[in-house]
Amino acid sequence: MPRSGAQARDRLERAALELYTEHGYDQTTIADIAAKAGVTQRTFFRHFTDKREVLFNNEGRQQEALTQALDGVPRTLTPVAAMLQAFRSMSPSLENNRPLAEVRHQIIAVTPALRERELMKEAALSTIVADALRERGLAEWNATLLAHVGTTAWGHAIHTWAADPSSNVDALIVQAFADLQDFATANTTAHPATQV
Amino acid sequence: MPRSGAQARDRLERAALELYTEHGYDQTTIADIAAKAGVTQRTFFRHFTDKREVLFNNEGRQQEALTQALDGVPRTLTPVAAMLQAFRSMSPSLENNRPLAEVRHQIIAVTPALRERELMKEAALSTIVADALRERGLAEWNATLLAHVGTTAWGHAIHTWAADPSSNVDALIVQAFADLQDFATANTTAHPATQV
DNA sequence: TACGGTAGCGACACAGTGTGACGCTACGCC
DNA sequence: GGCGTAGCGTCACACTGTGTCGCTACCGTA
Asked: Within 10 Å of residue A99's Cβ, how many Cβ atoms?
């Protein structure tokens, strides 16, 4: 009875989230999730490639949004400023579904397997940023390095935000970038690297 | 016939590396590895918790080495300089087994599952760095942020090194830190964050 | 040399994940 | 009203990872 298709997917996602929260990720089987959603195990894998992927479903949209955000940043800005602006433009969307983000964060935090997948998604975002920087004229080495570091700082802000209900993502992002700048300029020696 | 114990582990590691290289990670089964090593599947899992973990066996020693390296850095150095010195002290050890590193890098690069695990190991190193920075008096936010970013830069240098046989890790590490410094100071606006 | 303890392994048995193939049925479209 | 198809159920299956039991080669000790 293929009523909607999207309905089953929603039920599966909801069921998985509840079971992961209640009994933990490892203690939850695909059979449990499928039963709760009223479908078969096979149907689960038709909608999600993975047992983990249920929690990273909106990542696809986030990647597209980031791509567009990077595309919309004026070419006059420095690479660092461009990254910052693109990241900040994602803040409202993040803030909009904070409730879900908090729950997800708690589950992922205590499950190594899910933490692995989350790091993969961050790496994917980093690749997107690197592509954008490369298109802005940066060389391969610089584009990748800056993308990795910038994405890492962004991720740090998001994690802190997800763990603290009273915080504000956008402010934390700004703070992270500002702190990095301070740390870099605070070093009296311009290139401490050459001193070791 | 438990001749040595460590012998079986070595044979398993060698067999896995060869099979992963020849047929790819996904196409290689535990049965294949065990057969090639002359043991049972059960024995494989007695030595390695995972099918992936075979490739990340020396990571434990690397984590210990990094911990000691961070412990040996003079307290007078700035946090960034301290990280850099600790990372650089690991360079000889890395350079010593470059052959293995290159093979590993190639396998990991084309296997998402292994890339996930590698990111996990990097995260573990980041945690170690964060602990050290926290012990140096940095607040939680700064310690974690700086550790993440620094470890990311280090990882970027190592990846570039593993992919380019003619390169030198230590030089790349120095280069990465120097470039980050340049990017931060190149921004005419001290805090571009506040301008968006 | 004999003996007891133990570390390492083989041998099942089993739960759980993920994939392939086939058939059915409700839905949209002409 | 018939047709194509998307979505699902149903088997069947390969592979990963764990628990348990029993065996055997090695160790130190007397």
From this structure: 9
